[in-house]
Design goal:
- It is built from twelve helices and no strands.
- It is an all-alpha fold and about 290 residues long.
- The protein has one domain.
- α2 crosses α7 and α4 packs antiparallel against α12.
- The longest helix is centred in the middle third of the chain and has 34 residues.
- The chain is elongated and about 70 Å long.
């Protein structure tokens, strides 16, 4: 939720409960309609059994919950990929070429979002300044925020479906229709029960966003996510929204950006794949012992 409606919720443009309802609905629709492209990407990293797929999902869930408790908007994408790679290393079967490509896209995600939001804010700000009526400005920002949030939710669902259920398709544990349904419902449920702590970490602590800036950040984030989903690359919505927020902050000057919070978030991104990889291997070894 923090990566979809976080900025406009914090800026007071959209109510928290309305945001969770809209995000849940459109994340599910995004997963169901546009989530097929990236499903095969995750399963192509390594061959997963039932036990290893369960280990991947559990480790990503555990690490994400821990990060969330510390108000760190971690990347579930990095978590799952890190867990899959961890299992792959244990089994000595990893498609390193694909992993390197994914890591490269992760590095480009926040940079692309920064550039998009920076120039998009400058363009939209010109149109906004031409509106003399305060009421018109308020209506414009609210419509833009709602539209951008819905757009971001759909893009998130389409891009992250592969991460949630892609590992279960490799051995026929789920077919594509089942992966779309279960993955979409899981993301929708997680969104509906989202943590307010993480929402405020993204929408408030990095830099102070006005209503217009929060809407622009969402448009930039969702554009980056949708672009990656179209080419079948599961990337991080957390990185996209943080990059977008930074881009808006840069328009106002670097002094407006909270470097301490930013460093905390980046540290979380670096720790996540290694943490989930380690936890996944431990869970997998324990399950193997009892399974046998």
């Amino acid at each position: 939720m923090s990566t979809v409606f976080g900025p406009p919720v914090v800026s007071g443009v959209i109510k928290y409960r309305l945001a969770t309802i809209l995000a849940s609905i459109f994340i599910f629709l995004g997963a169901w309609i546009g989530g097929t492209t990236g499903v095969s990407t995750v399963s192509a990293i390594t061959q997963l059994s039932i036990l290893s797929a369960i280990s991947v999902s559990l480790s990503a869930a555990i690490v994400t919950l821990v990060m969330t408790s510390f108000s760190i908007p971690t990347s579930i994408t990095q978590g799952v990929i890190g867990a899959v790679v961890g299992i792959g290393i244990l089994e000595s079967v990893v498609n390193w070429e694909l992993v390197i490509k994914l890591v490269a896209f992760w590095a480009l995600t926040p940079l692309g979002a920064i550039l998009l939001s920076f120039f998009l804010f400058k363009f939209i700000a010109v149109l906004y300044q031409r509106m003399k009526s305060v009421r018109k400005r308020g209506t414009f920002v609210r419509i833009l925020s709602l539209s951008a949030g819905i757009y971001a939710a759909y893009s998130l669902g389409a891009n992250n479906l592969a991460i949630v259920s892609g590992q279960f398709t490799s051995k026929g544990m789920l077919n594509i229709s089942q992966a779309l349904a279960f993955g979409g419902l899981a993301m929708a449920l997680g969104t509906f029960t989202a943590s307010k702590k993480v929402i405020y970490a993204v929408g408030k602590d990095i830099t102070k966003l006005d209503p217009l800036g929060s809407a622009v950040a969402l448009v930039a984030e969702s554009t980056a996510l949708l672009g990656y989903s179209l080419i079948g690359v599961p990337t991080s919505s957390a990185q996209a929204v943080v990059g977008a927020v930074i881009g808006v902050g840069l328009v106002k000057g670097t002094k407006m950006i909270n470097n301490r919070t930013l460093l905390k978030i980046i540290s979380g991104w670096l720790i996540t794949p290694f943490a989930t990889g380690t936890v996944a291997v431990i869970i997998y070894m324990v399950l193997l012992k009892f399974w046998r």
